[in-house]
Amino acid sequence: MDYFLEIFLSGLTRGSIYALIALGYTMVYGIIELINFAHGEIYMIGAFTALIIASVLTTLGMSGPAVLILAGIVAVIYASAYGFTVEKIAYKPLRGASRLSPLISAIGMSIFLQNYVMLAQTSDFLPFPNLLPELPFLESTAHIMGSTDFIIIATTAVVMVALTLLIKFTRMGKAMRATAQDRNMAMLVGVNVNRVISATFIIGSALAAIGGVLIASHIGRINFYIGFIAGIKAFTAAVLGGIGSIPGAVLGGLVLGWTECFATGYVSSDYEDAFAFALLVLILILRPAGILGKASVQKV
Amino acid sequence: MTFRQEMKKALLTSAWFVFLTFPILVIRVNTIENVIEWRWLNMMWIAAGSFILSLLWSFYFGRKTGDPGKKTEAFAPADKAGSLFRNPRFRMPALVLTALFATAFPFLFSVYQTSIMTTALMYVVLGLGLNIIVGLAGLLNLGYVAFYAVGAYSYALLHYHFGLGFWVVLPLGGLLATLFAILLGFPVLRLRGDYLAIVTLGFGEIVRLILENWNEFSFGPSGISNIPRPGLLGLDLNLDTATIYLYYLMIGLCLITIFVFGRIRDSRIGRALIALREDEIACQAMGIDKARTKLLAFALGSTWAGLMGVIFAAKTTFVNPASFTFLESAMILSIVVLGGMGSILGVVLGAFLLILLPEYLRAFSDYRMLLFGTTMVIMMIFRPQGIITGIRRTYQFRGGSIDGATAGK
Amino acid sequence: MERQQENKGETILEVRRLSMDFGGIRALEGIDLVVQTDQIMALIGPNGAGKTTFFNCITGFYEPTAGDIFIAPPGGKRKRINGLKVDRITSLGLARTFQNTRIFPNMTVLENVMIGRHCRSKAGVLGAVLRGRETLREEAEIVERSYEILAKMGLASRVNELAKNLPYGEARRLEIARAMATEPFLLMLDEPAAGMNPQETKELDDLILRLRSEEGISILLIEHDMRLVMSVSDHICVMDYGEKIAEGTPQEIRRSERVIKAYLGEDSDA
Ligand SMILES: Nc1ncnc2c1ncn2[C@@H]1O[C@H](COP(=O)(O)OP(=O)(O)OP(=O)(O)O)[C@@H](O)[C@H]1O
Ligand SMILES: [Mg+2]
């Protein structure tokens, strides 16, 4: 039973991270119907920025949660800045082009960012300092759920609630929903669509950076390639839940996290990544609209 | 915009990029010795570079409003080269010269050069194969390398277990890749374009992961070695002659591919593929079976990957999963995107550029992937149709009679 | 209105109690419609009435929620076509155009029409590569037929131009030419005059009448331009909110209270 619970919780942790990244995919897709291939790279850049800032701060003699918070904030700012810039350079000029063009552009951006980080930093794995504090009240359950797991799950939950509130109640949130439903209509009623799209990229990137910092602390090492696999998995999560749907992304993330953890825990760990891909292929074939997505008739 | 405004904008852009690249490009952490390296020079480069680029960018886009043709003006030389090549007076001599050069190549250059050239030729074929799928039918396939792997492992395994030779496996490899494409295609091709991209990507990764982990089947990451090079009438060739032999073999295969690609493109089937790319809905309304046509494109394109896989195994005499990563798919895709979707000359140029440049400009090779990425973005923004635009076949009608004039190879 | 024929022809399209739902929204509600040989039938109604949806159901893009669609090609057998795939329905002899023109922009005008010949020819991959005698003959036939059709549509001078460079009116005619290339017995046009200037619309009148007299096909036409509708059609069906509210000859429709009400709005006569 303990083993089951342990796997269940590690699936929850992993799923939370997927959910954080998946939100970026789902929000962008909801608004401009683009699979933002470079999103995984934004997450990776978030993790790298956090690592760099944390190291600088540590060499400057700082320690403790202050490092975590500062590094986290800088990572979020930078990831958002990258997300914003990527949209301006690689996607905005292609609005109204055929569907294939922005997709290829996004793949190009993803390859570019990976290699940019690799060339500027290193292709080796870097150890990521564990910035997350030990929580004393979890000591008794540490063999099942450590502090890191707890912090990741709690952070994700808080972020989700904040995002939901933002989208439900703020002006920008309303503008986003309007744009997602019908971009031309939103434009007609005075929504500044360019600003909405930028905001979507910024928010999505910020969430990815939070995910990046959390997972890097959890796993303890990063390299320039982590965004690729994480990106595909998060995309899987988004599709699994129903792309375009925010609760769907969260649900999809959790389902994927559990699938992976149970499959590796009970079946075999050799094919960890293959499970995710297989799940993706299956979902797209059997239920392309995802768990929470509505099947829609293609308009003619 | 006035000059002052443009300068101001360029300065702002430059400042933005300095900010953006600051942590990653300027700071380097050595986590082992815990020292931090500050690379201020990089910052200078970025500041200057982004300033200039920003000026160029506003030059293109700032004036676009008046003249939409502006965007492609920079490619006028390419257009000229393309139309020159289509001009029969220039075309024949050019083809003859190319043929002579290609024939003489192994005698003019070293074995090493010949081997690189063979690789470039392989990518021409791979590019043309993918061009059927992406360029003609408009299906974004990001897992093309999986079919390449099928071909390579077919040869490796069939030789290992049954001792089958190169010439037997060559068609078999192509056939197996086609079969794989059809098996995958059945469920997958119903998907919308961008989902298809992701599923093919996932499929490519699954194939690689299986090859890496299923030791009993594929010998895992260490791969299979001692794969024989192709033999010539039972003669035992030494390394040099085998390389040259493979080179001529590739020339032959390349010509066949170009021939087949050209014929398919200008046929009833080819038109159906292009119509599918242009407008899926109208295409169905014209009585074209969408699913079947997609499957056909997938199968036709993947065959070449299978064939090249066999050649690859024979050329390197060794296969392992590391050769079949997503980056390989991305590279073949860049060849198609850069060269020109649907164009033969474009793919040939694209393959030579992307394979030969990194070989001969060593400094370039570190930045190869960086440039691939940049190329893909820039091409999509400025020239989505690629360097060479595929020109459609035209017809002359006089009274009732018809003359078919082919253009655009 | 000189052209008022008695319905002496045979039925070629029969739609019975056709309904279509989009996740709770009912876009079509029990529509009945019969089209006969040699008939030009117009389908009119306010925006959002469900006319295009009706086309999409018949041509197989949507699978209707309820109802039956039968076709009976002249001299052929009656057949229920619900749930058949789009391309199958086209090859059975129903061809259509789209409300928002859907030409193939990067193909030449001639190639656009040659695509229409796809379902009436059969060369495969092997034929394409080997280019045998039969393939060459078929290919020549495709080119010739396509050119003929284009010439009839007054597009002969445009054959080698890329379709995306055509002005709007010609693009619409190209779409009709392309549909004609599939050899339909019933041609379905979705707002062919939309966006055309009065001169072009006038020419469209002639074209539609000529298609019937010279090619011997029937036409089902969605149109908002009442002048066009009244001058070419011999039968009109009026839809509103997914229902058929009237049907009859142009004169009958012109006098119908319900039609006037639907067009002017409910409040106007209150
Ligand atoms: N694929 C779809 N999914 C959901 N609703 C749809 C779909 N297609 C059409 N509808 C709805 O069905 C109704 C009828 O639309 P339709 O396009 O058939 O109208 P129409 O009579 O052709 O109007 P118009 O004259 O403006 O072209 C509309 O309310 C429309 O929103
Ligand atoms: Mg309509």
Please, how many domains of chain A? Answer: 1
Q: Helix content range of the residues of chain C, please? A: 25-40%
Number of domains of chain C: 2
Would you state the CATH class of the largest domain in chain C?
Alpha Beta
Q: Which hetero compounds are present in the coordinates?
A: adenosine-5'-triphosphate, magnesium ion
> How would the global form of chain A be characterised?
globular
Shape of chain C: globular
Portion of residues within helices of chain A: over 70%
Largest sheet of chain A: 2 strands, antiparallel
Task: Briefly note the structural class of the backbone of chain A.
Answer: mainly alpha
**What does the largest sheet of chain C look like?**
6 strands, mixed
Enter the CATH topology name of chain A. ABC transporter involved in vitamin B12 uptake, BtuC
Ranges of chain A where pLDDT stays below 50 over 5 or more residues in a row are none
Assess the beta-strand content of chain C as a share of residues: 15-25%
- What is the overall number of helices of chain C? 10
